[in-house]
Design a protein that fits this description.
alpha/beta, five-stranded mixed β-sheet, 5 helices, 7 strands, 51% helix
Length: 151
């Protein structure tokens, strides 16, 4: 049995910040996130995955790409895995305004999203809070699954 991904997000004005862990992303979580991407008054989105390469289905990837293109949302994905950064590049070829950055390039990602220097520290604080929340929930959810005999 695969580990379950945790997705947490919040919006700050016209910026949405999302953190996602490794594992299979449940449709319920993804659908709720996509609903906010469709309806919230955002122009930029910072996607920050923190533990490992989360697994998205082709339908989940396509849905996200379509929303980004339709709404003209600019997205920065901050990850260290080259495979994920390659997938982001492929999404940009499909017309999404999306670019990948490594964690050492977080400041560059915020510049790409046009986050003001005054807001950058606040955004970084939110990122750290979401990272902790995702990590804690991921460990809790997946411990329970292992205790119940899942893998």
């Amino acid at each position: 049995m695969s580990r379950q991904s945790v997705v947490e997000w919040t919006d700050l004005g016209d910026l949405m910040i999302v953190c996602r862990t490794e594992g299979v992303t449940p449709n319920e979580s993804w659908d709720a996130f996509m609903k906010d991407m469709k309806t919230k008054p955002i122009a930029e989105c910072s996607s920050l995955s923190i533990i490992g390469a989360g697994e998205l289905t082709s339908v989940q990837r396509t849905t996200a790409t379509e929303i980004l293109k339709k709404r003209g949302i600019i997205m920065a994905v901050v990850r260290d895995e080259q495979l994920v950064r390659g997938m982001v590049t492929a999404a940009s070829w499909m017309g999404a305004k999306i670019k990948a950055f490594s964690w050492t390039g977080l400041d560059d990602a915020l510049d790409y999203l046009k986050v003001s220097p005054e807001m950058a520290d606040r955004v970084k604080g939110i990122v750290n809070s979401l990272r902790r929340a995702c990590t804690d929930e991921y460990e809790s959810v997946n411990k329970v699954r292992v205790a119940r005999g899942g893998r």
